[in-house]
Amino acid sequence: MLLIHCPYCGPRDETEFGYGGEADIARPLEPEALSDAEWADYVFMRTNTRGRFKEQWVHSHGCGRWFTMVRNTVTHERGETGVFGGVEPEADG
Amino acid sequence: MAETLALAHPLALPPERQGPDSDAVTLSAMPPLVLLDLRCRDKAALDAFLKKPLGLASPPVAQAVSNARGTLFRLGPDWWQLRCNDRKTADRLLKAGAAGPVGVTDISDSCLAIGVAGPRAREVLAKAATLDLHPDAFPAGTAARTLFGRVTVIVSRLDKGEPPTFDVTISRSNARFLWRWLADAAREYGYTTVPYSGGA
Amino acid sequence: MSGPQYRLPAHVPMGGRIDRETPLAFTFNGETFTGYAGDTLASALLAYGAFPLARGFKYHRPRGIWSAGAEEPNALVQLETGARTQPNLRATQIELYGGLAAASVNAWPSVDFDLMRINDWLSPIFPAGFYYKTFMGGGFGAGRWWKLFEPFIRRAAGFGKAPSVPDPDRYERMNAHCDVLVVGGGPAGLSAALAAANRGSRVILADEQAEPGGDLLAGDRAIDDAPAMDWVAAALEKLGSAPEVTVLGRTTVAGLYDDNFATAVESVGDRFGPGAPAHLPRLRLWRIRARQIVLATGAHERPYAFPNNDTPGVMLGNAVRHYAGRYAVVPGKRALLGTNNDSAYRTARMLADAGVPVTLADARETPPAALAKEAESAGATVEAGFAISAVLGDRRVRGAKISRILPDGETSGAPRVVEADLVGVSGGWNPALHLASHRGAKPVWREAQACFVPGDLSALGVWAAGAATGAETLADCLEQGYAAGRDAARAAGRTKRTRKPVLKADDSAAQAPIQPLWAVTSRRPGGRKGKAFVDLQNDVTVKDVALAARENYRSVEHLKRYTTLGMGTDQGKTANVIGLALMGMESGRAPETVGTTTFRPPYTPVPFGALAGRDRGALFDPARETPMFDWHAANGAVFEDVGQWKRPYAYRRAGESLEDAIDREVRAVRDGVGAMDASTLGKIDLKGPDVATLLNRVYTNDWSKLKFGRARYGLMCHEDGMIFDDGVTARLGDGHYVLTTTTGNAATVLNWLEMWLQTEWPELQVFATSVTEAYATATVAGPEARALLSRLDSDIDWSDEAFPHMAAVTGTIVGVPARVFRVSFSGEASWEINVPAHYGLSLWQALIDGGATPYGTEAMHVLRAEKGFIIVGQETDGTVTPFDVGMGWAVSKRKDFIGKRSYSRPDTARPDRKHLVGLLPLDRKIVLPEGGQIVADSEQKPPVTMLGHVTSSYRSPSLNGGFALALLKNGRNRMGDTVHILKLDGGADPARVVEPVFYDKDGGRLRG
Questions:
Q1: Per CATH, domain A3-83 is 3.30.70.260
Q2: In this structure, are C792 and C766 located in the same domain?
Q3: CA spacing 20 to 30 A to B158: which of B46, B117, C810, C916?
Q4: What pTM value is reported for the model?
């Protein structure tokens, strides 16, 4: 049972979070301009990394924010977290 | 036909006293809430929006502040809930929200609040909460949205009193489930329930 | 059974943990015994002698108590009977209470006369791998053999019986947090807890025994020249008065997990038996999140193997010491101890002091002189260079042989017979590194002590101390415990400096080293007679391990699975290390290269009740109730679970069948007016200037032109183009919309919107707030709905001109603000009335009083299916596009939206995909089975060509018969065809393919 450090709420039990898979899968700006293969790559293909892996998580039962977190998929060791949309944690929060 | 529809509170249930020491834990159903959901990307804008009608500034995430008009819960960096002590404040904010940078939504009937107090209150809640409720980790003013088993709640401790009084906000549909769950969890110590009995 | 003749008389200063003033009567296998408060079931039974109380797993040989703790492989019992019965409990860990009733397991028909003992005489046909070879192999008839033998094998192998009636007890679950969790309350654990507490840490000390003290409970140790138990008492008092310390006695830490999460099981009411006070839980499962963990879990003594080492009366040497010191029980009149290390000398001393003649066979040629001298002066006989080579007797030890031992375990010269009825064997110590293994620490072989010690886990905040690290002296245990407690507290941020106490243990001197010895037997075929057991619980012998090695099983994981070594409920606590050392000897490898298997939680078995906790009965899962729930419950509603919601399926009146009730409800909506509780529909308020842009991106259709006061239906898809939700969204004002979702998807859709808004389109100004619970929703539908609504006290104009189909109006109903949407899922004129949830019950009553017939979800399903309206999750399953269900009209060609690009992928664009169609069974009296597979030719030989399946199927009072919706390959081009729907019990029902709209095809009724 992981103790996940939400950038906004601090350490919380894994059960409060939802998993969003690989991070940095950006939606193509012009899907119609993509080949079928390129579109399929965006929709279906993920790297499934063994080792350090940048993922998206959402604090569904807490602050409701999505964030990114580096996690080692072998050891569960956690690395840096990142936020979306410039919603930075406050220094006192 | 009646002039207005009648209000029904899910926690208008028979009172109970159980267990070895019925003063160990007290569960109280609070009257219906006047509750606003507030969304804003910018804390300064939120503070400006609330300043006149409410006179409270936003606390950090997972904390709450109160005054005579209400209690402001900070659920996330861009998310607040305001429990108003009167309908007038809520209406004023709803009206102001229609134009501003703050999304204001009336969610009054979506939640109920349950007070959990007494010398064993902390232990009863610890059966549900994975959060650390120790006074050092959960001082007065803490208000965290979190998971109690399989239901999402906002658990808060609004005053410094010891033994502590916790305030648990729960969605309306789950209120009876949580009420029964907490009572069952308090059984080994003993408990008294104070259900809703009308009036605000 | 004669009296407790093996309980030492009261004048012998031993048995410090029992209270002779409080005798307790109990039964075992129906016979009555007496023990004392403070006894375990094992010690109380041993007071009557080391008689057989169990049978071996495979050969059904008689077995006695082997240990004094959690490592017990033999003495598994069934505790109590009826609803409270518990199988496979270790007698060594059951605290005695008055009236306790226990029985043997794995003995058929009884422990004294066991029919399965025949397996012992037949043992040549039960070698290692017997089950694999006979039943699992691909060879001739393997499956047939299994069929024949399974019932016999199941009965023979049964370890205890699960209760057959619901458990009447309560189980609690408690979450806890601490700076330092100390596991184990022996000298190292107590020291660690004191050190951490001194620094002001929040400490939890968990100890599995009836009282802390660990090895000191034997009562023969001294600290500061006083009985060590005085120090234990003082330590407990200190910890008890520290405000931030919790001492959890009778609590076994069962597992360690990521981020120092620990689970522990506390025996609360359990130790009182069935007479426990009613308010107490039987067990409490602790879920502890610790910043730092100190493992002071001690060590398990291991035996060495020799022929007939499973005879009752053979036990671990240190267990003999503990039974004497703690409980004043020595289950023999003359004792033989076999050892290869120093620890047995304490046992010898204890026995000699108790007046029991003892011979100590030390495999080492030169035992430590001081210890040997001390033992001899106390009356023991020391035989240096000797090991136990055989046990005489069958159901009890009648004597033993000792032989001169060579370094490889072979013996030389003729054995000597030693008169003994109690044999203690002491082959070294295995640090209890199970919990470290849970956290991923690879055990490290320590050659000098011939044992595995836990690998370093300090980077994860896990520290080990005392015998758990291989420490052999009390001085080291105290020292290491204190250091670990201090380091752990410091790592947890408790930096207050404290002064280390100076303690004088009774054994600071270094001792003579162990001489590894694993088995005294010939591993060669046809060697020494009599089975020498490595794993007593799973009946794995030295020969089995040798056979596995000869058959070239090299990995310890394969050894385990092939021989079942270590696969019992004890996880091989006393067996594993011997097994892999023998494996190494056979294959010429050192133990560290053979490796160890990974220990996994739980450390000792955890009852399901403790894991379930409060998740049972009415509290099993949250039951969400709508504002109208009480009315439904009081008026015959048959509920169905939709997600966690309790929704009325139908309202049954007296004398009515469920089918009749559904028919009546359908007719009421078609002919009059019905009311349905639709409060469970997901409702999301959307606010902000960019809502229309968001809707355009997440729904397939165009939202740019939706006017105030109007509503529109939308389909939501994933990027693969497949439908995942649908619902109506209404525009209530400038930048204010309310979006509805299906009941099951309310949270999913909100998360979906938030994900896109936060991660992909943060520039959009949209606030999404769930208002599902803020409103109660009643659907009022039917030709008489308008008339009913018009009679309500309301400022809303219900006329078709003012309130047309797909309009959204806000107003007041009986003094309460309402949002009303004119939408129809039934095909009739229909209004969804939303009022603040607390007024929902009262609104509902007003509708019923006004003449509406309440209808449930099943009538709703029939009504919508007659109209061909899909239900997401029923007509769709994540492989269905809007085009597949004939809703291409809801897909915009002018804008991009999530999933659009996928519609031009070749597979998605195929014209012959599965399409939504209607089916009318040729025999209109039948209702086709939902999920039924559709084929063109019901006579086709396998493999049969599957064309699709029935998604919804009902009996319709309006259509006078059965009808169905289905997904059918190329269905739109099969109109009028006859297809066949396979039945589970064979055969098929023919049905005609029709358009999926059965009722009011032009929609005149819903606009009426």
A1: no
A2: no
A3: B46
A4: 0.94
